Every structure is written in structure tokens, then in C-alpha cells.
Amino acid sequence: MIEFDHVSKIFDSYAAVEDLTLTIPKGAFCALIGSSGSGKSTSLKMINRLIPHTSGTIRVNGEDVTQIPVETLRRRMGYAIQSIGLFPHWTVARNIAAVPALLGWPKQKVDDRVRALLDLLQLDPRFAEKYPHQLSGGQQQRVGVARALAADPEVLLMDEPFGALDPITRDTLQAEMARIHRETGKTIVFVTHDMDEALRLASQIAILDHGRLIQLGTPREILSAPANDFVRDFIGRDDLGLKLLSIETVAQRVHPGETAEGAPIAAEASLRTALSILVARGAERAPVTAADGQPLGALHLDDLVRK
Ligand code: ADP
Ligand code: MG
To answer: Is-above-0.85 flag for pTM?
Structure first.
């Protein structure tokens, strides 16, 4: 658990973060979101003391971070950033193993860990002996995430890690992050300026503006009750309905036992996907099937669009 308790950061006389109070529960995926300069990176870096806060208290599992030796604190937290920061003259394996090596892990344990992480990030085991420049941007970013996870930290801090990637690679890595979060249950604090990314990944979204917390909530809470016009604009006013559809699945709206004509839609598809399928087909209804192909019922266009 990470707690910000009335935390401020003043640079010279400028408040980059002002009176931030926020609790990130253990195992949460918290997205810090806001426009450029809103204080996202500063908030993140205060957690592992890359930036010292000016006032207030930051606690990790109840411990004041200023009372934890900085090396100990950082070892408990993986850190991944957009610019990746891999060492160019080190192999992928050595890059991933940087922290375990520092901790003096025995060689066999380090090798096993590198292999397990390459597997977790779906990187070819043969990449271990390659150098960063021999990999694509997306592969390098995966190595950056693997390195952040190497010493099995309690917390993962990520600062716009996929910001520089093309949309398809970003989409793939977002899916990987969702899976890694599910599989490891780690507490993740994730900075982004992309609302779709936050809605897709986060269990908790904190919206910052000019160093202040404007709204905190689940994706559904933020979409269904934006705190003010700033949040509404940030989500994209015209897009609100579609975004709400994108966080719900077909399973949530299926009419059980009904039948319909046409190719079935998967129950786990988002309602947004289902809407575009129905519109493209010009159909009022479509059959819905479970992952194993069992028919579940039908989906009605009327339930997705307000008349
Ligand atoms: P974000 O990550 O949301 O884009 P930052 O947290 O990096 O924003 O920065 C918040 C504000 O603090 C910005 O106005 C930025 O210019 C200012 N700032 C950040 N770092 C420093 C610094 N080292 N010295 C002075 N001002 C800074
Ligand atoms: Mg930033």
C-alpha cells in the first residue's frame, strides 16, 4: 500500500504537486493521469525518493519513506520509463539482471530469473545474448519492464513506458501489462496522459491538474460521474458513451437463452466492439457465445444505443 498524506512538492516557489492525499491499495493498478506539467512524474518519483517531497508524508506499507534507507526503498520498487535507459554495451540478459547482480544473487538464480522474465514478457530466449540496439523499440521496452521486475519488487513504478511506441506495439504491451498485473498481483503506479490506456489498465484512476488531485475513482466512476468540466473534457466529451461501452463486456448485456441470426460475438468482447460489429452488419441482434463456443443468448443493438 502506498499513501500520500497531504504531500506537496515546491520547486523554487512553484508548486508542482500541491496537498496530494491519495491511497493506493496493495495490488492496485493506479493510473496517474493529466496533461503535460500536471505533476504526474513528480508524484511518481517522490515515491522512490528520486525527488524529495517538500511537505507531507509518503508511506509504503505504513512506513514513512524518509525513514527507509534510499537503496532499500528503491530495491523494493521496480522503475520503468519511456526512454527505457538500457545500458547499450550490456547484453539483454545483463541488463535484466542488473539489480539481482547488485544484490549478489548466485549465478544460477540470476540465470533462472532472466529466463523466467524473458518468458513472462514473451521475448525469445535467444535475445538474452543480444544487445539493445539489435531489438525493436517494443522489444526494448519489454526488456525495460523485465528489468524493473527482476528482483521481484513489491511495487512497479512506470512513467509513460509505452508513450514512444507505435499504436499496435503499444496495444500489445498494454495487454501484456494487464496480464502481468493479473499474474503477479503487484502494486503498479502508472503515469500516462492517455485516457484510453488508463481506462484499459487501471483499477484506480487519479486525475491531476496543475499539481492538484481533481478526481479519484474506478474507470466506471470517472466515466459515469466526471467531477467537473475539466475531467469531462479530458475524457473527451463526445467520446464518453463509447468509452463507457469499452469497459463493459457483452456478457453483461446478453439476453440469456435468446437466439439470433449471424456469426456469434464472444461474451468477453467489449460492448464497443460489439456495437461496431452490429453497425457494420446492419443487424439489430447478434448471437453471443462463451469462450468454449457454447451459445449464451443474444445481444440487442437497442441496449447499446440510446434511442
Ligand atoms: P508531468 O509528468 O505531469 O508532465 P512533472 O511532474 O514532470 O509533470 O512536472 C510538474 C511541474 O513541475 C511542471 O510545471 C514542471 O515544469 C515542474 N518541474 C518539474 N521538475 C522540475 C525541476 N527539477 N525544477 C523546477 N521545476 C520542475
Ligand atoms: Mg512526466
So the answer is: no
